[in-house]
Amino acid sequence: MSEPSAKPFLFCCRCGNDQLIAESPRCFRCARCGFRHYINPVGAVVAILTDRAGDLLLLRRAHDPGKGRLGLPGGFVEPGETGEDALRREIREEVGLEVPRLEYLVSLPNDYEYQALVTPVLDLVFTAQVASFAEARAVSEVEELVIVAPDRIDFSQLAFRSNAEALRRFVATRVRERS
Ligand SMILES: [Zn+2]
After folding, report:
1. 70 touches 154 (CB < 8 A)
2. In angstroms, what is the span from residue 7 Cα to ligand 1's centroid?
3. Percent of the chain scored above 70 by pLDDT?
4. How many angstroms does the Cα of residue 115 sit away from the middle of ligand 1?
5. What are the angstrom distances between the C-alpha of 84 and each of 94, 105, 139?
6. 170: how many CB neighbours lie within 10 A of its CB?
7. Which helix (H) or strand (E) holds 43?
8. How confident is the model at residue 9 (pLDDT cuts 50, 70, 90)?
9. 56 CA to centre of ligand 1 in angstroms
């Protein structure tokens, strides 16, 4: 995992000055115009999708970060969206499914490294069940779909620590419910 960089921006986004003063690890003040750049997590949503048989739908990522590794359907929340709206949109865009009901599970921090910048992210994790994955297909940003039983997940293949932790918690809950 990469630490958020000490000074993620070289220039003030308001006035273009290059003198940014670190007031804290997550706040940088422009020496010329005084604008404060705060480093706060970006909202993202993640789905643990199961079918009636209890299998999970993972996807192999077509692009970086984590190209070729496994992830869960999901993505960034767009302005004005609720987490639920965003996740339904992402599930539709990535795997072509409509989910009847989303259930909130947990929130987990993540780091998203892209274009040489590490962005802190807060993943909101939801679970949802569909009748079957027969209609699922790899659509946008997905190389292939991977349907797997909860006890067969290869955690070393997951692109993001938040996805791995969410799945661990989900699987542990399922095991507890069965025993
Ligand atoms: Zn400035």
Report:
1. yes
2. 15
3. 94
4. 23
5. 15, 12, 20
6. 20
7. strand 42-50
8. confident
9. 48
Domain 42-178 fold is: Nucleoside Triphosphate Pyrophosphohydrolase (3.90.79)
Q: What is the pLDDT of residues 10-48, one digit of tens each?
A: 899 999 999 999 999 899 999 999 999 999 999 999 999
Contact indicator for 22, 28 with CB cutoff of 8 Å? yes
Share of the chain above pLDDT 90, in %: 81
Tell me the two tokens of residue 164.
Answer: 């791995």
Q: What angle do CA 62, 65, 69 make, to 5 degrees?
A: 55
CB-based contacts of 23, cutoff 8 Å, min separation 6: 29, 36
Rounded to the nearest angstrom, the distance between the alpha carbon of 62 and the centre of ligand 1 is: 37
Instruction: Please tell me the distance between residue 24's alpha carbon and the centre of ligand 1 in angstroms.
Output: 17
pLDDT of residue 179: 66
Distance 41 CA to ligand 1 centre (A): 22
Q: What is the DSSP letter of 131?
A: S
Q: Nearest 10 degrees: CA dihedral of 147, 152, 157, 161? A: 100
For the chain, domain boundaries: 1-39, 42-178
- List phi, psi (to 5°) of 23: -90, -25
pLDDT in tens, 89-124: 999 999 999 998 999 999 999 999 888 888 999 999
Q: What residues contact residue 140 under an 8 Å CB cut-off, 6+ apart?
A: 93, 94
